[in-house]
Amino acid sequence: AIMAFWGAPLSIDDHAARAVISALEIQNALAARSKLTTRIGIHTGLAVVGNIGSDIRFNYTAIGDTVNLASRLEGLNKKFGTLIIISAPTYNDAKNFIEARKIGKVGVKGRAQPIEIYEPLGKKGEFGKFSETFLNNFSAALMEFEKGNFSLAKDLFTKTSKETDDSVSNYYYGLCGEYIKNPPKNFDGVIVFSSK
Fold first, then answer.
1. Is 26 helix (H, G, I), strand (E, B) or coil?
2. Could you report how far apart the first and last alpha carbons of the chain are, in Å?
3. What is the pTM assigned to this prediction?
4. Distant-in-sequence contacts of 3-12, Cβ < 8 A, 24+ apart
5. CA distances from 180 to 80, 137, 143, 162, 185 (A)
6. For 142-163, what is the mean pLDDT?
């Protein structure tokens, strides 16, 4: 695994956008030149940054909840079938420079507070393989899921899944089926992941 961070030791105003655009460029380069795939998670926030370690291992690095959450987001790509997941704080800081779609609200292991997550699609004005119609339909399906309308959401995700081979729609289609059979108690739109 590789960890990279922006904004230290020198402050950079557009650090979130640089991180997301770098992630997009990594994925584009891999798709064009290699069979290798990698997953990336990005979160924006405060961290302890500096020379950390001991006499045996000493490194300039970043630690803290921000770093841990970025790692958890990287792992969530396996669940959603995506390559890059960013947090809401990252999206909010970078949204003038990128296009992204909200893909849910999640609770991750080791963190009590749920967080909205997004999949970046490209630089501003670039939507990758997705049409505007698809993105609107996906957003409507996700909204119904978060309201707990699982049957309607399942029908809507069926359409988005067929329109484009979309792993996130496929994930929600399956999850809606599970929730129709076994409705979660006190559902608040958050998908809770208990493992890394």
1. helix
2. 15
3. 0.91
4. 3/61, 3/62, 3/67, 3/70, 5/47, 5/49, 5/62, 5/67, 8/47, 8/49, 8/62, 9/49
5. 19, 21, 16, 21, 12
6. 94
